[in-house]
Design brief:
Blueprint lengths: L5 E6 L4 H12 L4 E4 L10 H13 L4 E7 L3 H7 L7 E3 L3 H11 L3 E5 L5 H13 L6 H10 L1
Helix pairs in contact: 1-5, 2-3, 4-5
The structure holds D-ribose.
């Protein structure tokens, strides 16, 4: 079961193969999927892709985003510059669950050169199925926002 009804996914060239592999998994979950690119391994810049995914996520409160680059770091830096975005770079299932429970993360960042496809799928599964716990965690998010 997923908390979200749709997923907006994007990568640069260095995240293309992991994006394609994750899309196959997402399709099996009966989710709406929006792929904003990249559409090949031809070299491209990650900031515009991050911006596009974040804008779509901010326009639909039932959606989340997945951003993939080589390390996941560039995508997370770019995404977190956008107000309302809480992008979490995850390499473990524990981080994926905790960032949903505590940070209400709306973007999952992954690094194709860091995380294998099987682990990335397990991380994604937990990210999509874990919910925000609110309470003291909402207060802390409010402190970030304000
Ligand atoms: C591309 O070579 C690489 O720099 C990019 O995918 C990303 O890892 C940046 O943070």
């Amino acid at each position: 079961m997923t908390v979200f009804t749709s997923v907006v996914i994007g990568s640069d060239h260095a995240g293309f193969h992991l994006k394609e592999s994750l899309k196959k998994y997402l399709e099996s979950l009966n989710l709406k999927i929006f792929d904003v690119g990249a559409h090949s391994t031809e070299s491209c810049d990650y900031p515009p892709i991050a911006k596009l995914v974040c804008e779509k996520v901010l326009n639909d409160s039932e959606s989340c985003g997945i951003l993939i680059c080589g390390t996941g770091i560039g995508m997370s830096i770019a995404a977190n510059r956008i107000p309302g975005i809480r992008a979490a770079l995850c390499a473990t299932e524990f981080q994926a669950r905790a960032t949903r429970n505590h940070n209400n993360a709306n973007i999952l960042c992954l690094g194709e050169r860091v995380t294998g496809a099987g682990v990335a799928q397990a991380i994604t599964e937990l990210f999509l199925s874990s919910d925000f716990e609110g309470g003291r965690h909402q207060r802390r998010i409010d402190l970030i926002e304000n």
